[in-house]
Every structure is written in C-alpha cells, then in structure tokens.
Amino acid sequence: xxxxxxxxxxxxxxxxxxxxxxxxxxxxxxxxxxxxxxxxxxxxxxxxxxxxxxxxxxxxxxxxxxx
Length: 67
Description:
Distance between the termini: 33 Å
Strand order of the largest sheet: 1-3-2
Order of helices and strands: HEHEE
Helix content: 40-55%
Structural class: alpha+beta
Radius of gyration: 11 Å
Strand content: 25-35%
Number of helices: 2
Shape: globular
C-alpha cells in the first residue's frame, strides 16, 4: 500500500523542521525508490539541508541532516 505523495511531502517537511530545531539528523523509515524520490525532491530546494539514502536493496531509509 503506497503512501500518498502528500503524506510523504508532509513527512519530509516535518523531518526538516525537526532537524532545524534540534540540529540532529532525522532518519525516515525504509521506503521504495519512488517514495524516496518524493522526499529528496521535496527538500532539494532547502539550502540548509541534505538528504541521503542509506541501506541496501530496494527499501532504503532517508537521513535528513543539516549541511
């Protein structure tokens, strides 16, 4: 059951807010490449943050962190 794009975008923005507030990286749960792309694209315009996929296989986690 694929999570809606809107929900993924909100998850990305929530993670971004948390990273900026606490300065600690946030790890999102493992997701497929389509869902990860939505997260990366949602946050790519943010100059303060980097997003990085970690893990093996098709289900990878995303770490959102300060640059």
